[in-house]
Design a protein that fits this description.
single chain; 112 residues; 2 domains; three-stranded antiparallel beta sheet; 2 helices
Length: 112
């Protein structure tokens, strides 16, 4: 299920969180990293703490530095044009600059 907010997760609440995704990726990629004959260890609260701590740090860093993300929206139609803005300082994309936007748009997100 997609969320409209980043959820780092807690040991007591991993549902739909970044930490849960890390746990699942750990299990999924274990054999490719450690050998096909190797079984992944059971997930313990020590491991979950690591996943939660990393996820919390990533989400906090992204939240504190949202303006580092540059969004370019390229619109096709008459006339073709683009708008560039930073997260945390987003203008409305509706009637920007006295014009309306067609239904087709390409969004590119870049980071510094």
């Amino acid at each position: 299920m997609a969320n409209d907010k980043l959820k780092a997760g807690l040991i007591s609440d991993l549902n739909n969180s970044m930490a849960k995704e890390m746990e699942e990726a750990f299990k999924k990629y274990w054999k490719s990293a450690m050998g096909e004959d190797s079984e992944a260890p059971p997930i313990t609260n020590h491991m979950r703490l690591l996943f939660v701590a990393i996820a919390q740090g990533v989400v906090q860093h992204l939240t504190k530095n949202a303006k580092a993300f540059k969004i370019t929206v390229t619109l096709t139609g008459e006339p073709d044009h683009s708008h560039t803005f930073n997260l945390g300082n987003t203008p409305p994309i509706g009637d920007g600059g006295g014009h309306t936007h067609p239904a087709t748009a390409t969004v590119e997100i870049t980071t510094a």
